[in-house]
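Session log. Operator J.P. requested a structure for one protein chain; no other inputs attached. Running the standard single-chain path with token output.
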Amino acid sequence: MKQYIKRNAILLIILALTVLVSIIVIANRWRVESANKTYDVVLDYNELEWMAEQSGHDVSWWLKEFRSMGVTKVGLTEENLTTLMEDSPLNVTATVMEKVMQDAGWRDNYPEEFVREIESRGFDRFDVIVEIANTNDFNTSRFLVQAVEERFPADSYFCMEPSADEAYIFLDGVVADALYGSIGKYNDTKYKGFVERTEMLSSKLMYISLGLMPEKVELIQSAGMEVIPRTMSYSRHNDTQYAEAVIRGYEQYNITPDYIIVGGEAVIGFDDGVDFALNYLQDNQITIGLIETNVQRENIMQTGVAAEAIATDYNTVRVFSMWDYLQYRYGYYGYSGAEEIVNALYRAIVERNIRVLYFKPIKQTDDSHIYITDVEVYRDMFSSLNQRLAAHGISMGRASVMENYQIPSLAMLVLGLGAGIGGALLPDTFLSMKRKWTLLLAGLAAVCVAGAWKVLPNTFRLLASFASAVVFACLAAAFFLMAAKQTGQKLDRNAGLIKILPRAVAILAIAVVISLSGGMMTAAPLSSTDFMLELGIFRGVKVAQLLPLAFFCLLFLSYYGLFDKDRKGNNLDPKDIVTALKWDIPVWGLLLLAVVGLAGYYYLARTGHETNVTVSDVELIFRNDLEDLLLARPRTKEFLVAFPGIMLAVYCAVRRLPFWTALFGLAGTIGLTSVCNTFMHIRTPLYLGFVRTGYSLLLGILIGVIFILCFEGLLRLTRAILKKYAKAEQK
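Structure written below.
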């Protein structure tokens, strides 16, 4: 160890200086995150209305109750042909021509003048016919007719109003507007597939926003709440004319929303570019909402959203939508109420930079549409959420927007050089290298880094972050294995635990500090606002977890050969590779490899939310309890497996048990990569990463001591049994 440090002192000092630069960079990021401490709630009106139908109270009563809980905003989706058919005082029927033409006498169902007009225009199966009939209490077919006239080009529709109580509209559609169902199969009498058919069920024309319903707006505003309009925009029907009509609809009700949460395919007016929406946002200081996907990774990015986020200097907040699966988590995991929903909302705000909750009422089970209509459930839920968030200094109000912070270009170069120099130091951990060769390797790495920084500035920060995550985890693994072997050489194999435990704790702590340095080097290149908002994300998490494990195997082969108890040097010998390839693996070894392989697959597959491998309910409840008790939940694999594993590896090195040193060391390396992995999640505030790692280290030391005591007891018991058995054999 001392020789390695002496040989590479210059490079290690330079590496330490690059780590210092990373600390300065993330300190600025910390400052930005510290000012981002307010979240907001937007209540979904449609589902609130459905819940009110099942309760003994009307929508107005529920709005006032949520207002008393601190909720001040309501998301109101603009009406479209589909919603007007399903739930409005208008008696509207809209049908695609595909279905209309299936009736041979369809012309008889409409006024002769109307039919004559659409025939003269020409029609096809992609068009839509709308019929508005008389209603008792909403005699305003003009609502829909006017919306069409304001939003559609004159040559793309025809309206006819034969009386004040009815109207007919023809909308010209194209194939790009068609919406199809899944492929259906016709079977014969023997249930054999006869023919497949894809049926056109609807059209995008039936989902274009046509305006806000006046009664709903009045209801929300009379409750003292703000309307956050949800406008759906679709290509070919989203020009400046459409956008101007949308904004006039907002202004009609004096609505200037705090947030725009884009719906449909693009920002309003995008058929003519982003300028219209951009000007509206900037003139009214409106914040753009980025809706997180249901796998809790990245955002749902409609066309134009990213461009507007950049153009507005990232006047942007992340939005958490109450997805269906979460609405059904009432009484989940054996809880009595909405505890698991509170957990999900808490994690979204604290760990993923969510600052707007798009909230939908809770439902009872995952196979029903029955809402929870006890208002105290919602009151307790928001009270519990706010109480937990207070520990992090987060409160309810208008959503805070992060300052636009970007990493200085020169600092980015220094961070990349740190990753390159760290990589140049790795070969000397397992090869006998002279100082000049390591310096030469570091020089070549610096040249490559500088070239990439100049030629590929955008890709460079991803490469620098990825390289740091791998390199520092490998350096930490090299340190603890080197230190474990050195400790084993210094201490007698029967040394008491009083001598082993302090060394094991010190080695673990230093290894974690090295990994933590790697975490800062990993986070620093990506600590800009676009990555904190997940407009950009870290790639290669799984690869960054695998490479240090492979490197540890190479290190162990260099330090111990194939389980050599008395190997002196730390250099890889070609004979080691040959011996490993020729090793006759016993049956127990194959079984152990299979178990390790399955464990490795499970470890990688359960990373993230995009795989089918899920965490058990018991572990989730355990996590929830830790999350509730502590400021940040420590990672289970770190404090329960990996960090105790490093301490056990040191113990086994002293006891001359190379096989167990390898097994526990491999587990320990997982924890060192996990520390770096914690900081790969750029959206997570930095202080959580440091607190989480600190908790993991403290708990890991405690559990490591317990595990060593247990292993020592088992080892003594095994030796006693073997000794007794050997004596019996001699007799």
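Operator note: The chain has a mean pLDDT of 89.
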